[in-house]
Design goal:
The protein is of the alpha/beta class. The chain contains 13 helices and twelve strands. The chain has two domains: about 150 residues, Aspartate Aminotransferase, domain 1, CATH 3.90.1150.10; about 240 residues, Aspartate Aminotransferase, domain 2 (3-Layer(aba) Sandwich), CATH 3.40.640.10. The longest helix is centred in the C-terminal third of the chain and has 24 residues.
Length: about 400
């Protein structure tokens, strides 16, 4: 094999859209520039102390240093079952309907490996978190991208996409609250998805990783719908809920056949997370939830600061219903640049990093994703920087003056 020849599966993946922006960000930081990074969805808050304390306590037990189990320890799976019953009113069998995963991303990727045969068609939203499409592409499947700038457009597009597919789809992907758009759905949306999937004998994979980062009504689970367990599996995560992103703890729950398939694939790939991490995760799910309320309130304050200050700077950003992101249209006079070039312009001229919408699919190219991952002071500074950029580009006399102090 020639050294320059790409491996087969690597060739199936497109160039990493975020790499251009990340490389520019790294280069400017190396020059001493203070880049305000609103690009990556990496929580900046500490994990609550009682969870850390439980980790330390469990790690002092030498028996916890052995291999764990790929399905997850039974104590954690029972805690996950209690969470689903308490939060959604959904009863789950910890032995048969739950697998503890290394974050929701790993669970989703290995579900794709477990259920996908070469050439299988999967209906996925676009824009979407990249694993929702590329998990199946890596597994040998084919993606039928359905426009999803709104939940309504996605729901309406699914039926047409099913009819247009040359091969009956294997699965439908749903992700609400949505990363990147921050939009939510109600239970009626899931009822329509479940009815369509059962009628056409299609599996459903639901990503509910942002179930607890919401600013209105608590988002529902697809498993609340009668009959959903016959065709659906849902992945969830502790990463954002408890600011535990680096701990890598998530769950896959639902249809027993799919859960067993995932468990079998995982049995060949890993031994599960470090046991003390799983013990601490169970303590998080069963413990006090005032910390979750505090985390959610922090994101709410940051959201309001961003909407207000960016608006005064001249960039109107829609208010997200949930998640730790805002999904913002590229300002009209920069629309011709596309999301990647505009994102690079923001870094070069305003010292602000965002994620270009093209990285989430071609239908996201007119947008950027802005993470609520800096404190309010830094968000205000980002707004001041952006205001100066917009005024310099358009001319300060072209719009009413807004004092920097108002931002």
């Amino acid at each position: 094999m020639a050294e320059t020849e790409e491996f087969y599966r690597i060739k199936q993946l497109p160039p990493y859209v975020f790499e251009e922006v990340n490389a520019l960000k790294a280069r400017l930081r190396a020059q001493g520039r203070d880049i305000i990074d609103l690009g990556m969805g990496n929580p900046d808050m500490p994990t609550p102390p009682h969870i850390v304390d439980k980790l330390v306590e469990a790690a002092r037990n030498p028996r916890a240093h052995r291999y764990s189990v790929s399905r997850g320890i039974i104590g954690l799976r029972r805690a996950m079952a209690r969470y689903y019953e308490r939060r959604f009113g959904v009863k789950l069998d910890p032995a048969k309907e739950i697998v503890a995963t290394l974050g929701s991303k790993e669970g989703f990727a290995n579900l794709a490996q477990a259920i996908t045969a070469p050439g299988d068609v999967v209906l996925a939203p676009n824009p979407a978190y990249p694993i929702h499409a590329y998990g199946f592409i890596i597994a040998g499947g084919s993606i039928c991208a359905v426009p999803a700038l709104t939940p309504e457009s996605y729901l309406n597009g699914l039926a047409k996409a099913i009819e247009d597919c040359a091969r009956a789809p294997r699965a439908i992907v749903v992700n609400y609250p949505s990363n990147p758009t921050g939009q939510t759905v109600d239970l009626d949306f899931y009822k329509e998805i479940v009815a369509l999937a059962r009628r056409r004998e299609i599996l459903v994979l639901s990503d509910l990783a942002y179930s607890e980062i919401y600013f209105g009504a608590p988002p529902p689970s697809i498993l609340e719908v009668e009959g959903a367990k016959e065709i659906a599996v849902e992945v969830n995560s502790l990463s954002k809920t408890f600011a535990m992103a680096g701990w890598r703890v998530g769950m896959a729950v639902g249809n027993e056949r799919l859960i067993n398939a995932l468990a079998r694939v995982k049995s060949y790939l890993d031994y599960g997370a470090f046991t003390p991490i799983q013990v601490a995760a169970a303590a998080a799910l069963d413990g006090p939830w005032d910390c979750v309320d505090a985390i959610r309130e922090t994101y709410r304050r940051r959201r309001e600061t961003l909407i207000e200050t960016f608006g005064k700077a001249g960039w109107q950003v829609p208010r997200p219903d949930a998640t730790m992101f805002a999904w913002a249209p590229v300002p009209e006079r920069y629309r011709h640049l596309g999301s990647v070039a505009f994102s690079k312009l923001l870094i070069e001229k305003a010292d602000v990093a965002v994620a270009p919408g093209l990285g989430f699919g071609e239908f996201g190219d007119g947008f950027v994703r802005i993470g609520l991952v800096e404190n309010e002071q830094r968000i205000r500074q980002a707004a001041r920087n952006i205001k100066r950029l917009l005024q310099n580009e358009a001319g300060a006399s072209a719009r009413p003056k807004v004092a920097d102090s108002a931002l």
